[in-house]
């Protein structure tokens, strides 16, 4: 019985660690996305992301969206997608980008 309790405890700790690590990896992008204002231009978003130490993909030809990633590595990667219409923010969301 003691072994079963230890195994369940270890499993619970492993799940909690995974959840906490996910929150840790998502936080920089989530904070960045919440700070994007409706008046920001694509260039403003890119400049602020780079100052924050986040990785930005190349702008598309029409400047319709900017993807800001927490890191380049393909594990636990989150992205803030900022969409634009007429060079103003029309939407933003955070996604799991793996």
Offer a few descriptive terms.
single chain, 98 residues, alpha+beta, Beta-lactamase Inhibitory Protein, Chain:B, domain 1, four-stranded antiparallel β-sheet, 2 helices, 44% helix, elongated
Write the layout of secondary structure elements.
Layout: H1 2-34, H2 42-51, E1 55-56, E2 65-69, E3 78-85, E4 88-96
Describe the fold and architecture.
- There is one protein chain.
- This protein is α+β, with helices and mostly antiparallel strands.
- It has one domain (27-96): Beta-lactamase Inhibitory Protein, Chain:B, domain 1 (2-Layer Sandwich).
- It is built from two helices and four strands.
- The protein has helices spanning 2-34, 42-51; strands spanning 55-56, 65-69, 78-85, 88-96.
- The termini are far apart.
Task: Produce a short descriptive summary.
The protein contains 2 helices and 4 strands; from the N terminus they run ααββββ. With 98 residues, it is an alpha+beta fold. It has a 4-stranded antiparallel sheet.
């Amino acid at each position: 019985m003691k072994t079963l309790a230890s195994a369940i405890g270890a499993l619970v700790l492993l799940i909690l660690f995974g959840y906490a690590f996910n929150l840790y990896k998502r936080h920089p992008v989530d904070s960045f996305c919440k700070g994007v204002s409706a008046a920001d231009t694509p260039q403003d978003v890119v400049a602020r992301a780079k100052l924050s130490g986040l990785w930005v993909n190349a702008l598309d030809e029409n400047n319709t969206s900017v993807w800001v990633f927490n890191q380049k590595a393909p594990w636990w990667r989150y992205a803030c997608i900022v969409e634009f219409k007429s060079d103003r923010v029309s939407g933003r969301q955070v996604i799991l980008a793996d």
